[in-house]
Amino acid sequence: MTPDEYAQQKAAQSGSSFYYSFLFLPPDKRRAITAFYAFCREVDDVVDETQDVGVARTKLAWWRTEVVNIYQGNPQHPVGKALQSVVTQFNIPQEKLHEIIDGMEMGLTHHRYADFKSLQRYCYLVASVVGQVSAMIFGYSDKKTLDYAHDLGMAFQLTNIIRDVGEDARRDRVYLPQDELAQFNLQSSDILNAKYSDNFSKLMQFQTARAQKFYDSAFAALPAADRKTQRAGLIMASIYRTLLGEIAQKDFQVLHQRIALTPLRKLWLAWTTWVKG
């Protein structure tokens, strides 16, 4: 199996909505974004699949060394090998890959966030940086496109948090800011015990409104000149924003289940967004 085939398999196995946004890209950009996404999956899996924090830190430290190897032309891992030409071709700064690992490491121990400011730092590392690197691969001519990518990544991560409230709670993780829980007369225990209430619905409406503002600010920041090259990101936005609407329509019943769009619906959204240009 070649490094590119390994990265392709890793990306496809995830079942993520991101995969649908890659389908319509030119071959060189599709290969590049697939390699980058496989890297993100590898380091994210360290956090999700490793029970021992010490072991997870050791694995992430290995990936930090691998990032250096990638830029020095001597990667060891198939994903590192697939990324080697990508970081050069698309001028991906090394610190961006390190920031993504920083975010994953933060996720090992930070399972509660006092306020949105502290949560926003985490979202920046695990999502906005990913958005910016993706925008670099898709291609841009105006630096404002990186502002668009920053806010779009934030919107995606906030959507993930809303979707995964119950799943995260079963791992003793509560990514809803503690001061906002208190604002709606809720506690972490309400989330951990999957307790639905009017206050929970109001809290989730509040979280959804914030996510929608980030979608709006992202779209407002995207220069018209770069809209065509950034269509893959717009596909993701269409899928994620539709999902957010679906969750709201189902009254935020996310504590006991994971609400998702069907693959066919995702493909339809991807196709219609691409055709619109």
Sequence-ordered SSE layout with sheet pairings:
Elements: H1 3-14, H2 18-22, H3 27-49, H4 53-72, H5 78-89, H6 94-109, H7 116-138, H8 144-163, H9 165-169, H10 178-183, H11 188-192, H12 198-221, H13 231-249, H14 263-276
Helix pairs in contact: 1-3, 1-5, 3-5, 3-6, 3-7, 4-5, 4-6, 6-7, 7-8, 8-12, 8-13, 12-13, 13-14
Which key features would you list for this structure?
single chain; 277 residues; mainly alpha; 0% strand; globular
Describe the structure.
The chain has 277 residues and is an all-alpha fold. The chain has 14 helices and no strands. Helix 3 (27-49) packs across helix 5, helix 4 (53-72) packs across helix 5 (78-89) and helix 8 packs antiparallel against helix 12. The longest helix is centred in the C-terminal third of the chain and has 24 residues, at 198-221. It is globular and about 55 Å long.
Decide which structural class fits the backbone: mainly alpha
Low-confidence stretches: none
Shape descriptor reads globular
> What string, H for helix and E for strand, traces the elements in order?
HHHHHHHHHHHHHH
Helix content: over 70%
Sheet having the most strands: none
Radius of gyration: 18 Å
The overall average pLDDT, rounded, is 94
Characterize this entry briefly:
The protein has 277 residues and is mostly helical.
